[in-house]
Backbone:
């Protein structure tokens, strides 16, 4: 039985990812949270994957305040499958093109 995550902004791809990460119980991966906001959506996603997964949480935003807020909120959750944190503050989202 799969647990589905319903986040309106990310409908199709997030459903598939959460489902398959539950199947592969010991997968390690980087969760790059582009335009991270306060980290709430990433927290919901992290809770949906198998607890044996090892996750490096990488919040990315042009606003340093939001990157720090996302880190703080994810750390507050004390999610045992988050093993590392690598924050990114970028000058512009244009650097992500191409």
Residues:
């Amino acid at each position: 039985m799969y647990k589905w995550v319903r986040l309106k902004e990310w409908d199709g791809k997030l459903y598939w990812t959460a489902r398959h990460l539950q199947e592969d119980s010991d997968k390690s991966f980087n969760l790059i949270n582009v335009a991270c906001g306060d980290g709430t959506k990433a927290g919901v996603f992290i809770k949906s994957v198998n607890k044996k997964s090892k996750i490096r949480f990488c919040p990315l935003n042009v606003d340093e305040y939001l990157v720090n807020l996302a880190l703080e909120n994810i750390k507050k959750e004390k999610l045992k499958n988050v093993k590392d944190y690598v924050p990114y503050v970028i000058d512009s989202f244009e650097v992500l093109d191409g």
Strands lie at 28-34, 54-61, 82-85, 88-89. The longest strand covers residues 54-61. Residues 1-10 have pLDDT under 50 and may be disordered. The chain is about 35% helix and 20% strand.
